[in-house]
Amino acid sequence: MLSALQHYSYCPRQCALIHQEQSFDDNEFTLRGQRAHRRVDGGELSTEDGVRVLRALPLYSERLGLVGKADVVEILPDGAPYPVEYKQGRRHKREHDDIQLAAQAICLEEMTGHAVPEGAIYHHKSKRRRVVKITPELRRQVEQIAQAVRTMLAADTLPPPADDPALCRACSLREICQPDLVGEEQRIRELAEHLFEVDSDPP
Fold first, then answer.
1. Which residue has the higher pLDDT, 200 or 140?
2. What angle do helix axes 2-10 and 95-112 make, rounded to 10 degrees?
3. pLDDT tens-digit profile of 164-194?
4. Which domains does the chain have, with CATH numbers?
5. Residue 11 and residue 162 in contact, taking contact as beta carbons nearer than 8 Å
6. Any alpha helices (H) in 133-178, and if so which ranges?
7. What gap in Å lies between CA 41 and CA 105, rounded to an integer?
8. I need a surface site. Which of 10, 55, 151, 174 has the fewest CB within 10 A?
9. 10 Å Cβ neighbour count for 117?
């Protein structure tokens, strides 16, 4: 799934819990996101200021083995698609959102034959767009993360929690993930490994 790339770039453990363990929970951020997506999830076609707007458009890339859907795709006058991803928060640059948008652009290029050099993130809270250039580096990250997700799912093991308290605080899966407990278990194992070691240096 395209969404797995965004989840993995945010936190590999979050990605595994959702796409491998089929675990999910809501918090205030995910509920706000669902509210922001109500219109785009409807799938209707409209024309706004002379631009055709497609919502909830199914996407795929046979080359990368990806499937998913775009929140909004605007059809430019020359027929080129312009993806717009909706996010509930304020206008901030977040790499995992950019990777998701770049993956959509790659799918659209394969599906339509048109180049997609940029797209946009629409931030619902501030009602502002942030233009994202689909750079060669972003494209490489999409391919690398797609392979990393496949490797992780094939291994059938849960990665460790992210080493970033800020990410954990905002994650809806915090209670399922138990990052503090997992971190303590790792620390206990490390201490146990060295419990009976004798310091060779004199006191």
1. 140
2. 160
3. 888 888 888 888 888 777 666 666 666 667 6
4. 2-159 (3.90.320.10)
5. yes
6. 136-155, 165-170, 174-177
7. 19
8. 151
9. 12
